């Protein structure tokens, strides 16, 4: 899929309702979706991948509050852990246990 999809198409593809997609955006599970000049949402492939991941989390019975924590961590990325990781690798490089 190389094109962006509107909310109705995303609802059809994912099996989620339009209301659920809007709700997920409102509570921060989805990043703010790109909008056209007329205000219509257009979802990208990355949005669809994340929505599919959210669906799998829900299928495990995970509460929405925990899913919101996942979304927050995702937004922060992995850069928060990199300085420690690199530092520990440098300190331990070449050492034998």
Write the layout of secondary structure elements.
Layout: H1 7-14, H2 18-26, H3 45-59, H4 64-76, H5 82-92
Characteristic terms for this protein:
97 residues; mainly alpha; 5 helices; globular
Short overview:
With 97 residues, the protein is mostly helical.
Helix content: 55-70%
Number of helices: 5
Main sheet summary = none
Strand content: under 5%
- First-to-last CA distance: 49 Å
Radius of gyration: 18 Å
What order do the helices and strands follow? HHHHH
* Global morphology: globular
Structural class: mainly alpha
Indicate the low-confidence ranges by residue numbers: 84-93
Number of DSSP-assigned strands: 0
Mean pLDDT equals 83
What does this structure look like?
By secondary structure, the chain is mainly alpha-helical. Helix content is 58%, strand content 0%. The chain is globular, with a radius of gyration of 18 Å. Residues 84-93 have low confidence and may be disordered.
